[in-house]
Write a structure and sequence with these properties.
The structure is a single chain. Strand 10, helix 11 and strand 11 form a beta-alpha-beta unit. The radius of gyration is 19 Å and the shape is globular. The chain has 14 helices and twelve strands. Helix 1 crosses helix 8 and helix 8 runs antiparallel to helix 9. By secondary structure, the chain is an alpha/beta fold. 49% of the residues are buried. The strands form three sheets. The chain has an eight-stranded parallel barrel, surrounded by seven helices. It has a two-stranded antiparallel ribbon with strand order 1-12. A two-stranded antiparallel sheet has the order 2-3. It has a single domain, classed as TIM Barrel.
Length: 356
């Protein structure tokens, strides 16, 4: 565990999270993301020119060149600043959406805002990523610990974000050594944020999924978009288990290592019930074939975190290589299913359930 006395507890936690996600075995090892149940129907004669395949889309009023979100990861330390800068460069180059790591530490320690800022101007410097869809992010539970819509709006303004993510992470907070576990009355406070801030509010989980029942409650109080962040990828129960020095917490994390709703199940249920609600699929997505499956299931864009983090720790070139492959995989699915664009894919019979 990081012991730098110059860092706040929150900053130490952020560095711990990066290290553990990269170095320890904290991926779901039993529960899968659910996409193994589906396959595409191959079209041997697509009647398309591969070069004309269009994988662009629109989300929350922004044109994206690829249906990809770099999911929220980090911020608050020098290490995190480098990661965010590299991710922002890739988001700008490929016109992607990008989430910023939880901004609570910005409110606690404003001087470290620069480790999150990827759009702000400094003197004559131009924006590093003016064209991306930028999402600020903070834990919804903080609304029960002294934070209000005002802090949420301040965070959005500091980051010059286009929308705000409120993340829900009850299981992680149960196991986290310094976890905040009072979620009582939170729905009304989320409603207050939705009503009073000037940008759309997105609610996401962190890897355990959002059911259609929970989505209904959130949509009814004004949430504009849902990020399911389902099970099948990084297990934050295991991440916090690795961080903890407390035997009970460590064992608790192991017990709940595979807890959650598979990503595909969340997307299928919510898309069917609320087809007009902007929907982000994330949770255990590792390649463009899986991205395409989730688009076919009804998501609007798809978020990935771990693959981007792994590449970002290597180099900009590694990020570019990953993004080129990801786009090629998505484009190849469209081509080999006879669909010229994402809308065509989502309204086709290209998708089959192979097991229930």
């Amino acid at each position: 565990m990081n012991t730098d006395n110059n860092l706040t507890e929150t900053q130490v936690r952020k560095d711990d999270h990066i290290r553990i996600c990269l170095d320890e075995k904290v991926q779901f090892n039993q529960l899968q993301n659910g996409l193994e149940k589906y396959r595409f129907n191959h079209v041997c004669l697509p009647e398309l020119d591969y070069q004309e395949i269009d994988i662009s889309t629109n989300f929350l009023g922004k044109k994206l060149h690829s249906p990809v979100l770099i999911s929220s990861m980090t911020g608050g330390t020098e290490n995190a600043q480098l990661i965010n800068q590299r991710l922002a460069m890739i988001a700008q180059k490929y016109h992607l959406a990008m989430g910023i790591g939880s901004g609570r530490v910005i409110i606690e320690k404003p001087d470290i805002a620069k480790t999150f800022q990827v759009r702000s101007r400094s003197g004559s410097n131009r924006c590093s990523c003016p064209d991306i869809l930028l999402l600020a992010n903070i834990g919804a539970v903080q609304l029960n610990y002294g934070y209000t819509w005002r802090e949420c709006l301040k965070l959005v303004e500091i980051l010059e974000a286009d929308a705000l993510i409120l993340h829900l992470n009850p299981l992680q907070e149960c196991i986290q050594p310094e976890g905040d576990t009072n979620f009582k009355g939170l729905l009304d406070k989320i409603a207050d944020v939705c009503e009073k801030i000037t940008v759309p509010v997105i609610v996401k989980e962190v890897g355990n999924g959002i059911s259609v029942t929970m989505a209904k409650k959130l949509i009814n109080v004004g949430v504009k978009a849902i990020d399911v962040a389902g099970g099948g990828g990084t297990s934050w129960a295991m991440v916090e288990s690795e961080r903890s020095d407390n035997k009970l917490k460590r064992e608790l994390g192991k017990t709940f290592a595979n807890w959650g709703i598979p990503t595909a199940d969340c997307v299928a249920d919510i898309a069917k019930t609320y087809p007009d609600i902007p929907l982000i699929a994330s949770g255990g997505i590792r390649n463009g074939l899986e991205v395409a499956k989730l688009l076919a299931l009804g998501s609007d864009i798809v978020g990935l975190a771990y693959p981007f983090l792994k590449a970002a720790m290597t180099s900009i070139e590694a990020l570019e290589e990953f993004m080129e492959l990801l786009n090629a995989e998505i484009r190849t699915v469209l081509f080999c299913t006879g669909n010229k664009d994402i809308n065509s894919l989502q309204n086709s019979d290209s998708f089959t359930i192979v097991k229930s």
